[in-house]
Amino acid sequence: MKRSIVMIITALIISATIIPTPSFASEVKVDLAENAKSAILIERDTGTVLFEKNSDERLSPASMTKIMTMLLIMEALEDGKIQWNEKVRTSEYAASMGGSQVFLEEGEEMTVDELLRAISISSANDASVAMAERIAGSEKQFVKMMNQKAKELGLKDTKFQNATGLPAKNHYSSARDMAILAKELLKHEKITNYTSQYESYLREGTDKKFWLVNTNRLVKFYPGVDGLKTGFTKEAKYCLTATAKKGDMRVIAVVFGAPTSKERNKLITEMFDYAFSQYETKQFYAKGDELGKVTVEKGQQRNIKIAAGESISLLTKKGEKMDDVKTSLKLNKHIQAPIKKGDEIGKIVLIKNDKVLSENSAIAAENVKPASWWTLYKRSFSMFTKLQ
């Protein structure tokens, strides 16, 4: 019996220039973030580090902690565990949070959409705890989820004690870990619909109408900035994890421990200016681009579409000549039903001079259920008769 597995492994010769691996940052002497305790600047698609300063130092992240909180909210939405229009009740504990808040009252209900706006725009501690309790049952259980996710992402210098970033012993992160966390959050494209808003309102139509103003002023004053999260406590000083996009290039900048909010914004602005003036991104595939089809073993349908799991790019130094880069699609050996849309079924590999530059996920673009016994029998019988 012939077994036909259609594995579309195409190699395209594409002109592009790459910068060296993330260690490149240590080779470039750039005078940035002088007044920060630590900082890092990365290009989002490739993860290439363009600048770093004390990037692995463990420091208090303050409300940048909420990047993880928002990530777990977005994952719960994607998994269908919560719904955008679902109303969430505020507990006495959530209502008791100090610091930045939207003054939720015990028993007050807001939708997930409203609470996420409160968190992402106004850095609301009460909204963060209300969502933590809805997702995990308690903030304590939610913190366990936060630390488990940090472990999955390989965050070696991060440990959380709460969902808000309020001062707590043994609650820390690093600039590098925050950049990785921001990179993961940005995979959920809807999040910037929230973090990019400069202002919004809660409780409209009531005498308790509440004005939300983004704590990240750069979303208004720096073109292309659409997130992510500020932070401040007396211990942490002024912190910010920010992202900006121009053309195909998105960068993430993190600052810990700036002396003032004005200086924090200045440092981030200088890092963005440096990135966009010196580099550009060459995109090969956008997230969701179809790459071809592959045969599925024992599936209701024999072939499924393959797509790019993320935007696949290389970073180029502006003005440099382009060299040959090959891309190839390498699929898993056995692709068998059931398959869920979004499952990784292979890798898109970028290669230069026989050296692998990067590997990116190739995913199933549709669901495939297992074929019935009768379907498999008919296929086998049909294949047998063709061989006669």
TrEMBL record:
EC number of the protein: 3.4.16.4
Active-site positions on this chain: 63 (acyl-ester intermediate), 66 (proton acceptor), 123
Binding of substrate, residues: 229
Job description of the protein: Removes C-terminal D-alanyl residues from sugar-peptide cell wall precursors.
PANTHER family the record matches: D-ALANYL-D-ALANINE CARBOXYPEPTIDASE, TRAFFICKING PROTEIN PARTICLE COMPLEX SUBUNIT 12
Pathway note: Cell wall biogenesis; peptidoglycan biosynthesis
Catalytic activity: Preferential cleavage: (Ac)2-L-Lys-D-Ala-|-D-Ala. Also transpeptidation of peptidyl-alanyl moieties that are N-acyl substituents of D-alanine
Protein's UniProt name: serine-type D-Ala-D-Ala carboxypeptidase
Family to which this protein belongs: Belongs to the peptidase S11 family.
Enzyme class: hydrolase
Coiled coil (residue ranges): none
Gene Ontology terms: biological process: cell wall organization; peptidoglycan biosynthetic process; proteolysis; regulation of cell shape
UniProt KW keywords: Carboxypeptidase, Cell shape, Cell wall biogenesis/degradation, Hydrolase, Peptidoglycan synthesis, Protease, Signal
Entry-linked InterPro entries: Beta-lactam/transpept-like, Peniciliin-bd_prot_C_sf, Peptidase_S11, Peptidase_S11_C, Peptidase_S11_C_sf, Peptidase_S11_N
Pfam families: PBP5_C, Peptidase_S11
Organism: Caldibacillus thermoamylovorans
Annotated GO MF terms: serine-type D-Ala-D-Ala carboxypeptidase activity
UniProt domain Peptidase S11 D-Ala-D-Ala carboxypeptidase A C-terminal: residue ranges: 279-370
Signal sequence interval, chain numbering: 1-25
Highest taxon in the source lineage: Bacteria
